[in-house]
Amino acid sequence: MIIQEISIAGSGNMAFYLARVFKRNNILVKKIISRNIDEVKRLAKICDAEYFSIDKVRDIEETLVLAVSDTAIEEVCEQLLQKIARKKFQSLLHTAGSTSIDVLEKFTDYPGVFYPFQTLKKDEEQVSSNIPIFIETRDAAYLEAVKKIANSISSNVYEMNSEDRKYLHLAAVFACNFSNHMYTLANEICNEISVDFSVMHHLIKKTIENAVELGPDKAQTGPAARGDSVVMNDHLNLLREMGKYDDIYKKISESIQGLIGKE
Amino acid sequence: MIIQEISIAGSGNMAFYLARVFKRNNILVKKIISRNIDEVKRLAKICDAEYFSIDKVRDIEETLVLAVSDTAIEEVCEQLLQKIARKKFQSLLHTAGSTSIDVLEKFTDYPGVFYPFQTLKKDEEQVSSNIPIFIETRDAAYLEAVKKIANSISSNVYEMNSEDRKYLHLAAVFACNFSNHMYTLANEICNEISVDFSVMHHLIKKTIENAVELGPDKAQTGPAARGDSVVMNDHLNLLREMGKYDDIYKKISESIQGLIGKE
Fold this sequence. Notes:
The structure is a homodimer. Chain A has 9 helices and 8 strands. Chain A is an alpha/beta fold.
């Protein structure tokens, strides 16, 4: 089994990433399908594909990559099957971290997952070829075909089942969404003293370097890690004066101390 | 007023950083003083200084930089004044983010703060010349002298008073110590599925790039930011199965949604 042609449903960040990276690696994208006709045009131009709004699609014989939000996967599949007057797709791949491969089973005999592990932005031309891609299928031959596509765009391809992928996505929420929220709160505190967040850049970059080099548990520093209750109380008082974030400061400090205490 | 010679009290991360960076920029370090005689020797060698244990110091006529922990500043000053049989130091600089310049007033007529804004490691040879340095004095001429030293080792020198510096330090706790704790929890979740934390590196680096480029508030993504309660409930269930971190997940998600809701 070889995947010779791909179509992409969607016109968001993931669809733009895939269109660019497939084009760059000479993987033929046949159609781009989306409700958003302006974006689908723009996207199709990037990878020399045909484009269709969902109600204008005639047939889909190739592998369809669902680059749509987790909650839209089933709806888009149902709408498209109605339009193309088939019972099932030839083969499918969804791209959602938290969604099981199971949701695709009623729509195809070849369900699959193709999950690039990165925060993607629509208009970003340059994308690293080392982005980890996590893949899953139910069929060995289909797995090899998907793996071939994945290997051609990334040097970090891993097989992972749906259950583990949910944990992976959860870990990503902590490592990225939640760490970003910590920057947001730091930014707000900087605003209090009219200091630009850019003074933090060095410190943030260094923190990551240390976490990557030593492991984040070994790299942990700060008043909570060293049990400095004088500084922590000072900080809580400043936050109470600001009228916010003292509860989250307390909660995270306790969590840090809980882990340190366990060692 | 010119600072012609400096001595450093301490033999921790900050003392090593200062010794290296002063040496590299031809700032004369006269003495290194610390209780830890092995480390003080090693440190003195780096910057061609004399070294003393605290009880062997005879006199300190030069500017003394206190590279000791926040809580040790007063104690070290008292011990040294006894030893050198002076009422006051000629001039002092402490290096602590959360400590007011006021603690130095009883020890010198020239109190000052010299706060390099970075996580420092003892054995790191290469240090960026762009590390922000926040300085404070009570005296205009002394300020110029301290600024001269700071400018010679960094292109980012800012004056900041003690009250604002406390907020800055608090912001750093969020941006670095707390974000690092988020990596630690991500790491633990990765351990659950036997995945190495290194798969997160790309994502973490990208998150920072976006936060720096767009501002962290604009860069916020994830299930909490987009109000995806299905994924959030899934995640909470996984954490409850792990028997930990569901409360911190909830708290931070609520905090993210609190900010989004405000816009």
